[in-house]
Amino acid sequence: MTxxxxxxxxxxxxxxxxxxxxxxxxxxxxxxxxDVHYRTVDSPLGPLLxxxxxxxxxxxxxxxxxxxxxxxxxxTRIGPRVLRAPRRLDPAAxxxxxxxxGDHGPYPGPVDLRLARGFRLAVLExxxxxxxxxxxxxxxxxxxxxxxxxxxAVGTACATNPVPLVVPCHxxxxxxxxxxxxxxxxxxxxxxxxxxxxxxxxxxxxSAPRLL
Length: 212
What we know:
By secondary structure, the protein is an alpha/beta fold. The protein has helices spanning about 15-25, 65-75, 90-100, 120-125, 140-145, 150-160, 185-200, and strands at about 35-40, 50-55, 55-60, 80-85, 135, 170-175.
């Protein structure tokens, strides 16, 4: 009995794969445009997934969120054509780099908030008015809406914010001065507040401050 050696599949050339993917990105326009394009961005908080539609950035996910689940949710809620297209999101990546370096400017590009509706959308619109380095309590943010007693609903809107950092829900804290919960994790919120207060992002593992 004779055996035949398995056919050896040559390793793909990474440079060739990159060129082919770049062509795919270039061709994905007009009727062929994806419903969602995305990339990952390295950050001091870990890798961030940034996804956008033709209307603007629609999702920013932290490393503690499951990437496959995030992409599946986007495919279900926005559209099934999801393409990794890093170059299209270079402006968002540059803004994130500047943000973590202490740049005070708000995100200058378009934002697609279709994943938030009703009162949650209204809360996010108010959140965009809170400037770098400032905080606001959940109660005070509720007071800026048409439902000033809906403090708990404001907390839910912040917790489900599809584009944290871009819409800065980390700037919303409890009335007693404690930081409260955050989609990216409690520690990430503490570090972001310290960045905006002190101009430097502290190392991981710091204790939670009280904001007086």
